[in-house]
Amino acid sequence: MGNSQASPASASSSRFVMASRAFSKQELDSLRALFTSLAAQSQTSGRAISRAVFLEYYGVRGPLGERLFQLVAKESDGSDGVTFEDLIISKATYGRGTRDEVDEFIYQLCDVTGDGVLTRSDLEAVLASIHETVFAENKGVGEGSNDRTFEAFLNSAVFSKDAEGVSEKAMSLSDFRKWCTLLPSLRKFLGNLLMPPDSGRPGFEVPLLHYPENISTDLLLLNKEYAWHIGGGFSQHEVQEWKLLYHSSLHGQSFNTFLGKVTNGDAQNVLIVKDTEGSVYGGYASQPWERHSDFYGDMKTFLFKLYPQASIFRPTGANKNLQWCAINFSSENIPNGIGFGGQPHHFGLFLSANFDQGHSFTCSTFTSPPLSKTNRFRPEVIECWGIQMRGAQDEKPELVKGTVLERFKEDRNMLKLVGLANSSD
């Protein structure tokens, strides 16, 4: 008597065969070797990777790690752990699937309770896991966790879905995709959890920040979480080294001083503004700040918000009005100051040459909303960080091993970085 419907075992075998085709023979051999090694540590007679060994190897902490294990072990119900078939099917879907398949996997991953409804509490758990995985173990002397940073990440999320049996609104897949677009570091992190942990996984890297000892961390607008967020807008997947070039509390709120500090620094820099309303935002300038009578720059430039919401706004290609730096022009058509996007007198972000006022309007260059609460604002703090990409120079500045934020003394060279590849362990 024929069987018109495949059994669960044969269905799983069919998915395994299909999933295996996503990998070359060499890749399958490498995955088999990895599985054999981890299964041997799992006290399962080599049948599966135990939960404890799986979580220890991939290093994802908290509820997100538990949920990752559940999804990977889903085919075999996870009673013994992750089988080789589980590993291949999940890696094929998650790592080699279509964009829709990957987004659906990550969307389910963030539903840490597994109830089919993605709520704010799920996202809180996800962000707590990211903090524990990426930041907590790299905490340096003098560093403190900034809870309001993750509050800003949550504040950029939209919940538009009505879910049965749930009083609060849930996040739809469309909502989730928009959130990931605004927070590219989040998307990189969630999209690379099953990469080998020693491979410099995108989303796990945190820029190393350097600043003089004579400035308190309490005065800095930038912290390691914000740097992680801004760094997600870069196309490079390397850890960057960021050095404070200018801070208005340290150097005075002066345009000329600002230009003197930043033109002697690295060409690529991050400008951050806190206004008198308490909002924090800025822009990434991929080209040096130089005197021009018109817009210049390239498509790597972007705008961002840090607080009360965190978002990144990339160029759309609608125009090439990316960076603006006008000095000592007498024409009313050429406003003196620095800015990003939009049009003269109607920028996406602009600081006047006196550094005492600025404005931010809806901007088609980046499809960005006003960054400030009101279009016109007064800056309270302005700071600028120079960015040195790893490997960009033969002679690297020296850093301290294993930390994210390390103070340096201005009268000596920075200590040499040791074990950079393990900075996210």
Automatic annotation (TrEMBL):
InterPro entries on file: EF-hand-dom_pair, EF_hand_dom, TLDc_dom
Signal sequence bounds: none
Domain TLDc per the UniProt entry, residue ranges: 220-388
Domain EF-hand stretches: 98-133
Top-level taxon of the source organism: Eukaryota
Molecular-function GO term, any one: calcium ion binding
Species assigned in the record: Panicum hallii var. hallii
Gene3D superfamilies: EF-hand (1.10.238.10)
Record-given protein name: TLDc domain-containing protein
Entries under SUPFAM superfamilies matching the protein: EF-hand (SSF47473)
